[in-house]
Protein backbone atom coordinates (compact mmCIF):
# COMPACT_ATOMS: atom_id res chain seq x y z
CA UNK A 1 0.00 0.00 0.00
CA UNK A 2 1.30 3.44 -0.95
CA UNK A 3 0.11 6.97 -0.34
CA UNK A 4 -1.01 7.03 -3.95
CA UNK A 5 -3.60 4.35 -3.20
CA UNK A 6 -4.96 6.38 -0.29
CA UNK A 7 -5.13 9.59 -2.32
CA UNK A 8 -7.02 7.88 -5.15
CA UNK A 9 -9.40 6.21 -2.68
CA UNK A 10 -10.09 9.50 -0.89
CA UNK A 11 -10.70 11.34 -4.17
CA UNK A 12 -13.19 8.72 -5.37
CA UNK A 13 -15.00 8.66 -2.04
CA UNK A 14 -15.29 12.45 -1.76
CA UNK A 15 -16.26 13.03 -5.41
CA UNK A 16 -18.79 10.22 -5.76
CA UNK A 17 -17.20 8.36 -8.62
CA UNK A 18 -14.14 7.33 -10.58
CA UNK A 19 -14.71 9.72 -13.49
CA UNK A 20 -14.84 12.84 -11.30
CA UNK A 21 -11.81 11.70 -9.31
CA UNK A 22 -9.88 11.07 -12.53
CA UNK A 23 -10.61 14.58 -13.81
CA UNK A 24 -9.65 16.11 -10.47
CA UNK A 25 -6.36 14.22 -10.25
CA UNK A 26 -5.57 14.45 -13.99
CA UNK A 27 -5.18 10.67 -14.11
CA UNK A 28 -6.79 8.12 -16.45
CA UNK A 29 -9.95 6.61 -14.99
CA UNK A 30 -8.66 3.11 -15.72
CA UNK A 31 -5.55 3.81 -13.63
CA UNK A 32 -7.63 4.90 -10.65
CA UNK A 33 -9.94 1.89 -10.99
CA UNK A 34 -6.95 -0.44 -11.10
CA UNK A 35 -5.36 1.13 -8.01
CA UNK A 36 -8.61 0.87 -6.04
CA UNK A 37 -8.96 -2.81 -7.00
CA UNK A 38 -5.39 -3.45 -5.84
CA UNK A 39 -6.17 -1.69 -2.56
CA UNK A 40 -9.31 -3.74 -1.98
CA UNK A 41 -7.44 -6.95 -2.72
CA UNK A 42 -4.71 -6.02 -0.24
CA UNK A 43 -7.25 -5.14 2.47
CA UNK A 44 -9.43 -8.15 1.72
CA UNK A 45 -12.71 -6.17 1.80
CA UNK A 46 -14.70 -4.15 -0.76
CA UNK A 47 -14.46 -0.41 -0.15
CA UNK A 48 -17.16 0.63 -2.62
CA UNK A 49 -20.62 -0.69 -3.42
CA UNK A 50 -20.67 -0.78 -7.24
CA UNK A 51 -24.08 -2.43 -7.56
CA UNK A 52 -25.88 0.84 -8.19
CA UNK A 53 -25.31 3.52 -10.78
CA UNK A 54 -23.69 5.86 -8.27
CA UNK A 55 -21.04 4.09 -6.24
CA UNK A 56 -21.12 4.38 -2.48
CA UNK A 57 -18.74 3.53 0.31
CA UNK A 58 -19.33 0.23 2.05
CA UNK A 59 -19.35 -0.05 5.83
CA UNK A 60 -15.66 -0.99 5.66
CA UNK A 61 -15.01 1.86 3.25
CA UNK A 62 -16.48 4.41 5.67
CA UNK A 63 -14.18 3.22 8.42
CA UNK A 64 -11.15 3.12 6.13
CA UNK A 65 -11.81 6.66 4.85
CA UNK A 66 -11.39 8.11 8.35
CA UNK A 67 -8.02 6.41 8.78
CA UNK A 68 -6.95 7.30 5.25
CA UNK A 69 -7.66 10.98 5.86
CA UNK A 70 -5.62 10.88 9.09
CA UNK A 71 -2.69 9.20 7.36
CA UNK A 72 -2.73 11.60 4.42
CA UNK A 73 -2.94 14.61 6.72
CA UNK A 74 0.07 13.29 8.67
CA UNK A 75 1.99 12.74 5.44
CA UNK A 76 1.18 16.24 4.20
CA UNK A 77 2.22 17.67 7.56
CA UNK A 78 5.51 15.76 7.43
CA UNK A 79 6.23 17.12 3.96
CA UNK A 80 5.38 20.67 5.04
CA UNK A 81 7.63 20.37 8.10
CA UNK A 82 10.46 19.07 5.96
CA UNK A 83 10.09 22.01 3.58
CA UNK A 84 10.11 24.41 6.55
CA UNK A 85 13.17 22.61 7.89
CA UNK A 86 14.95 23.13 4.57
CA UNK A 87 14.19 26.85 4.90
CA UNK A 88 15.56 26.90 8.46
CA UNK A 89 12.17 27.69 9.99
CA UNK A 90 11.97 24.78 12.44
CA UNK A 91 14.52 22.97 14.58
CA UNK A 92 16.88 23.82 17.40
CA UNK A 93 19.75 26.28 17.81
CA UNK A 94 22.28 26.36 20.65
CA UNK A 95 24.24 29.61 21.02
CA UNK A 96 27.40 29.91 23.08
CA UNK A 97 28.47 33.23 24.60
CA UNK A 98 30.67 34.52 27.40
CA UNK A 99 29.99 37.16 30.03
CA UNK A 100 31.04 40.61 28.90
CA UNK A 101 31.60 39.51 25.31
CA UNK A 102 28.19 39.78 23.72
CA UNK A 103 28.48 43.30 22.36
CA UNK A 104 25.67 45.88 22.40
CA UNK A 105 23.82 44.15 19.55
CA UNK A 106 23.58 40.62 21.00
CA UNK A 107 20.14 40.97 22.67
CA UNK A 108 18.70 42.58 19.52
CA UNK A 109 19.95 39.70 17.34
CA UNK A 110 18.43 37.07 19.63
CA UNK A 111 15.08 38.88 19.87
CA UNK A 112 14.89 39.42 16.11
CA UNK A 113 15.65 35.77 15.35
CA UNK A 114 13.06 34.54 17.86
CA UNK A 115 10.48 36.92 16.38
CA UNK A 116 11.05 35.70 12.83
CA UNK A 117 11.57 32.00 13.60
CA UNK A 118 9.13 31.21 16.37
CA UNK A 119 9.26 27.45 15.80
CA UNK A 120 13.01 27.23 16.38
CA UNK A 121 13.94 26.31 19.94
CA UNK A 122 16.81 28.60 20.97
CA UNK A 123 19.14 27.76 23.86
CA UNK A 124 21.77 30.18 25.22
CA UNK A 125 24.80 28.66 26.95
CA UNK A 126 27.40 30.70 28.82
CA UNK A 127 30.92 29.24 28.72
CA UNK A 128 34.54 30.32 28.47
CA UNK A 129 36.00 31.06 25.05
CA UNK A 130 38.24 27.95 24.96
CA UNK A 131 35.11 25.87 25.59
CA UNK A 132 33.43 27.62 22.63
CA UNK A 133 36.02 26.35 20.21
CA UNK A 134 35.81 22.77 21.53
CA UNK A 135 32.00 22.80 21.62
CA UNK A 136 31.79 24.06 18.03
CA UNK A 137 34.04 21.27 16.87
CA UNK A 138 32.06 18.67 18.83
CA UNK A 139 28.73 20.05 17.64
CA UNK A 140 27.36 20.64 21.15
CA UNK A 141 26.75 24.29 20.23
CA UNK A 142 25.84 25.58 16.77
CA UNK A 143 27.27 29.09 16.90
CA UNK A 144 29.24 31.22 19.34
CA UNK A 145 29.78 34.88 20.10
CA UNK A 146 33.42 34.55 21.06
CA UNK A 147 37.00 35.72 20.70
CA UNK A 148 39.01 34.71 17.62
CA UNK A 149 40.46 31.20 17.72
CA UNK A 150 44.24 30.76 17.74
CA UNK A 151 45.64 30.86 14.19
CA UNK A 152 46.51 27.16 14.41
CA UNK A 153 42.86 26.29 14.98
CA UNK A 154 40.92 28.96 13.10
CA UNK A 155 41.36 27.49 9.63
CA UNK A 156 40.49 23.93 10.56
CA UNK A 157 37.95 24.17 13.36
CA UNK A 158 35.44 26.82 12.33
CA UNK A 159 34.59 29.91 10.35
CA UNK A 160 34.48 33.38 11.86
CA UNK A 161 32.96 36.73 11.02
CA UNK A 162 34.07 39.91 12.79
CA UNK A 163 31.27 41.60 14.71
CA UNK A 164 32.74 44.16 17.04
CA UNK A 165 35.96 45.47 18.58
CA UNK A 166 36.04 46.12 22.32
CA UNK A 167 38.32 48.99 23.31
CA UNK A 168 40.42 48.22 26.35
CA UNK A 169 40.86 50.28 29.48
CA UNK A 170 43.01 50.19 32.57
CA UNK A 171 40.92 49.39 35.62
CA UNK A 172 42.26 51.09 38.73
CA UNK A 173 41.16 52.60 42.02
CA UNK A 174 39.72 56.11 41.92
CA UNK A 175 42.56 57.18 44.18
CA UNK A 176 45.21 56.07 41.66
CA UNK A 177 47.42 58.92 40.30
CA UNK A 178 46.38 58.05 36.71
CA UNK A 179 42.66 57.77 37.47
CA UNK A 180 41.74 61.31 36.43
CA UNK A 181 43.44 61.17 33.02
CA UNK A 182 41.21 60.97 29.93
CA UNK A 183 43.40 58.23 28.47
CA UNK A 184 46.78 56.65 29.07
CA UNK A 185 49.33 54.54 27.24
CA UNK A 186 50.20 51.06 28.42
CA UNK A 187 53.80 52.14 29.04
CA UNK A 188 52.51 54.33 31.91
CA UNK A 189 51.59 51.12 33.75
CA UNK A 190 55.09 49.66 33.61
CA UNK A 191 55.64 49.94 37.37
CA UNK A 192 52.21 48.62 38.34
CA UNK A 193 51.29 45.22 39.70
CA UNK A 194 48.93 43.52 37.25
CA UNK A 195 45.81 41.49 37.85
CA UNK A 196 45.12 39.16 34.93
CA UNK A 197 42.40 36.69 34.06
CA UNK A 198 43.70 33.12 34.10
CA UNK A 199 44.86 32.01 30.65
CA UNK A 200 42.95 28.73 30.91
CA UNK A 201 39.70 30.74 31.14
CA UNK A 202 40.51 33.57 28.75
CA UNK A 203 43.60 32.87 26.60
CA UNK A 204 42.87 35.65 24.13
CA UNK A 205 42.55 38.25 26.91
CA UNK A 206 45.66 37.02 28.74
CA UNK A 207 47.78 36.99 25.58
CA UNK A 208 46.52 40.45 24.65
CA UNK A 209 47.72 41.92 27.95
CA UNK A 210 51.15 40.31 27.56
CA UNK A 211 51.37 41.51 23.95
CA UNK A 212 50.44 45.11 24.81
CA UNK A 213 52.99 45.24 27.60
CA UNK A 214 55.69 43.72 25.42
CA UNK A 215 54.99 46.27 22.67
CA UNK A 216 55.22 49.00 25.33
CA UNK A 217 58.70 47.79 26.26
CA UNK A 218 58.20 45.92 29.52
CA UNK A 219 57.12 42.59 30.97
CA UNK A 220 54.10 42.91 33.27
CA UNK A 221 54.58 42.15 36.96
CA UNK A 222 51.68 39.79 37.55
CA UNK A 223 50.57 39.85 41.17
CA UNK A 224 47.21 38.07 41.21
CA UNK A 225 45.22 35.91 38.81
CA UNK A 226 41.41 35.91 38.62
CA UNK A 227 39.19 33.22 37.14
CA UNK A 228 37.14 35.80 35.22
CA UNK A 229 36.80 39.53 34.57
CA UNK A 230 34.34 40.04 37.42
CA UNK A 231 36.90 38.61 39.80
CA UNK A 232 39.59 40.85 38.32
CA UNK A 233 37.47 43.94 38.99
CA UNK A 234 36.89 42.76 42.57
CA UNK A 235 40.65 42.38 43.05
CA UNK A 236 41.19 45.90 41.72
CA UNK A 237 38.62 47.13 44.26
CA UNK A 238 40.60 45.34 46.96
CA UNK A 239 43.73 47.28 46.00
CA UNK A 240 45.62 44.30 44.56
CA UNK A 241 46.72 46.15 41.43
CA UNK A 242 45.49 47.27 38.01
CA UNK A 243 43.88 45.26 35.25
CA UNK A 244 43.48 45.70 31.50
CA UNK A 245 39.88 44.91 30.65
CA UNK A 246 37.00 45.84 28.41
CA UNK A 247 35.19 48.86 29.81
CA UNK A 248 31.99 46.79 29.81
CA UNK A 249 32.76 45.98 33.43
CA UNK A 250 32.06 48.23 36.41
CA UNK A 251 33.05 48.23 40.06
CA UNK A 252 32.57 50.39 43.13
CA UNK A 253 35.55 52.65 43.65
CA UNK A 254 37.05 51.54 40.32
CA UNK A 255 37.54 53.69 37.23
CA UNK A 256 38.28 52.55 33.70
CA UNK A 257 40.80 54.77 31.93
CA UNK A 258 40.81 54.16 28.15
CA UNK A 259 44.08 52.97 26.64
CA UNK A 260 45.38 55.13 23.80
CA UNK A 261 47.56 52.43 22.25
CA UNK A 262 46.62 51.63 18.66
CA UNK A 263 46.23 47.89 19.32
CA UNK A 264 44.38 48.25 22.62
CA UNK A 265 41.24 46.38 21.57
CA UNK A 266 39.90 42.84 21.45
CA UNK A 267 37.76 41.49 18.63
CA UNK A 268 34.43 39.79 19.09
CA UNK A 269 33.49 37.32 16.35
CA UNK A 270 30.60 35.06 15.51
CA UNK A 271 31.94 31.56 14.88
CA UNK A 272 30.51 28.28 13.61
CA UNK A 273 31.76 24.91 12.42
CA UNK A 274 31.16 24.30 8.70
CA UNK A 275 30.86 20.53 9.21
CA UNK A 276 27.84 21.10 11.49
CA UNK A 277 26.17 23.78 9.36
CA UNK A 278 22.42 23.38 8.81
CA UNK A 279 19.48 25.47 7.52
CA UNK A 280 18.59 26.82 10.99
CA UNK A 281 22.16 27.99 11.53
CA UNK A 282 22.20 29.65 8.09
CA UNK A 283 18.96 31.47 8.98
CA UNK A 284 20.50 32.69 12.23
CA UNK A 285 23.70 33.85 10.54
CA UNK A 286 21.63 35.75 7.98
CA UNK A 287 19.72 37.55 10.76
CA UNK A 288 22.83 38.18 12.87
CA UNK A 289 25.00 39.60 10.11
CA UNK A 290 22.22 41.77 8.66
CA UNK A 291 21.35 43.08 12.13
CA UNK A 292 25.00 43.83 12.78
CA UNK A 293 25.30 45.88 9.59
CA UNK A 294 22.37 48.11 10.51
CA UNK A 295 23.41 51.49 11.95
Automatic annotation (TrEMBL):
One cellular component term from this protein's GO annotations in UniProt: protein-DNA complex
GO molecular-function terms, A-Z: DNA binding; DNA-binding transcription factor activity
PANTHER family reported in the protein's UniProt record: HCA OPERON TRANSCRIPTIONAL ACTIVATOR HCAR, TRANSCRIPTIONAL DUAL REGULATOR HCAR-RELATED
The keyword Iron is assigned to this record: no
Gene3D superfamilies documented for this protein: Periplasmic binding protein-like II, Winged helix-like DNA-binding domain superfamily/Winged helix DNA-binding domain
Name of the molecule in the record: LysR family transcriptional regulator
Species the sequence originates in: Alloacidobacterium dinghuense
UniProt domain HTH lysR-type: residue ranges: 1-58
ATP-binding recorded as keyword: no
Family: Belongs to the LysR transcriptional regulatory family.
Annotated Pfam families: HTH_1, LysR_substrate
Cross-referenced SUPFAM superfamilies: Periplasmic binding protein-like II (SSF53850), Winged helix' DNA-binding domain (SSF46785)
Keywords: DNA-binding, Transcription, Transcription regulation
